Amino acid sequence: MFIKRVLFAFLFPALLFFACHPQRQFIEEPDATLVFTLDTVYFDTVFTTIGTVTRNFRVKNPHSMHIRIDDITLAGGASSVFRINVDGEPGISFSGLEIAPRDSLYVFVEATLDPNNSGEILRIQDSIVFFTNGNIQDIDLVAWGQDVHILRDSTLEGSNSWIPDKPYLILNYVYVDSLATLVIDPGVRVHLHRDALLFVDGTLEVNGTRDEPVIFEGDRLEEFYEDVPGQWGLIYLSEYSHDNRMDHAEIRNGTIGILISAPPESGRTPDLEISNTLINHMSSNGIYALNARVTGSNLVIGNCGGSCTGLIFGGDYQFTHCTFANYWPSWYSNRRLPAVYLSDYFGNYDEEGNLVIYTGGDFEQASFKNSIISGNELMELVIDSYDGRRLNYLFDHCLTRIAEDSLDFLNDPAFVSIINNEDPLLDSIPYSYEPDSLSPVIDEGLPAHAVRFPFDLNGNSRLDDAAPDLGAYEWQPSPPPEENR
């Protein structure tokens, strides 16, 4: 009797359940098909041998009855470059799946493309085929793949040339030995993985051209990441590096564009000549220079989470026809540093974790001529001395953004012909930072400063009108509209 009671206690709820839940009814009409949230899964250009991001779509049952999917198949089978996962189960074929009325299931897709032994971008296609009630439906899978030179934990010795046959991908680091030279030819694209860096103890020569610049950027090529900062580490020019040159380059979406530094006690001064270059969307600084020598012309540094340019402790710096424009958006982070920052001291931690302040740095010079220093903060130029010394600087024919109660530039002879706190009216922020037709920087430069750099970043002459414009770009009037014929 006891056993019967126990069985009844367990079986009675089950009997009630089935009594209240009639057998599922499946729709089997030929016109009963599935609905998908997209018709094609696209992967933007990806590097061969490197896995893609995972994309997904939903398979929906729009009907009031259950629907049975007879089969889901990856058309390319085991040889496909694509991989699929259906509701948590990986595979290439799935059968007997059911979807409740008005419900759905997820399909996840990723790919790893094989090398194509070509510098061209090739299109790879496959599909996922669904068989339901005698109907065949499919979702296209499309990816564009490109071969890439992969450099992981690499050390370069002697003379090295990177040519534009296919992109270069740096994983972790590439180290240029102290006796080595790395020459990067026009049109080369250098992609750096998260936190990766190019570490130079020797010499770096970047030889881009206006038509074929050298690009440094992250390795996430999806459209979403086009303007996302902090995707990779930095270009580091160490105390031992020398004769570094960079012309017609674009450095974007990293942490620090260029870090060039030497410890105060080293007695060394690494050097960089940088021209016709855009540094943009850095999560920290565009250029951070400590005890270095930097000459910049036709240089644009925009939108950084720190300073566009930080000149620290001392060194020798000359910037002519440069644009430092920091309109860092607040939704990334709160920016606390100005567009341009000069300081004769800095702090660092010793091996025990104690903060050590280094003071007494000397600037041979820090000159800014025919340049723009602006942004969306009240103070975009800060000159900071640990013990209140006067630093050796010059701002000659510049547009600045200075809070006059914080820096009395009006009574400082090192500030010459300054336009202060006027909106430079730059177009295409945060991309090119070119002045528009009403910009106050037009014709405000000193011709003597422009003689050494007669052409702007776009190759336009600065010497063909009344005076050169401030910054890296010379404003160009729009061509007159063609007359109707």
Characterization of this structure:
The protein has helices at 2-20, 447-450; strands at 35-36, 40-47, 55-60, 67-74, 82-86, 89-91, 93-99, 104-111, 122-132, 135-146, 149-156, 159-162, 168-176, 181-184, 189-192, 197-200, 203-207, 214-218, 234-237, 244-247, 249-252, 256-261, 271-282, 287-304, 309-320, 323-326, 340-343, 346-349, 355-358, 363-375, 381-384, 394-400, 415-420, 426-427, 434-435. With 485 residues, the chain is mainly β. It folds into two domains: 35-145, Immunoglobulin-like, CATH 2.60.40.10; 148-450, 3 Solenoid (Pectate Lyase C-like), CATH 2.160.20. It has a 21-stranded parallel sheet that branches. Strands 1-3-8-5-6 form a five-stranded antiparallel sheet, with no helix packed on it. Strand 34 (426-427) and strand 35 form a beta hairpin. The chain is elongated, with a radius of gyration of 30 Å. The model is unreliable at 1-20 (pLDDT under 50).
Outline the fold blueprint.
Blueprint: H1 2-20, E1 35-36, E2 40-47, E3 55-60, E4 67-74, E5 82-86, E6 89-91, E7 93-99, E8 104-111, E9 122-132, E10 135-146, E11 149-156, E12 159-162, E13 168-176, E14 181-184, E15 189-192, E16 197-200, E17 203-207, E18 214-218, E19 234-237, E20 244-247, E21 249-252, E22 256-261, E23 271-282, E24 287-304, E25 309-320, E26 323-326, E27 340-343, E28 346-349, E29 355-358, E30 363-375, E31 381-384, E32 394-400, E33 415-420, E34 426-427, E35 434-435, H2 447-450
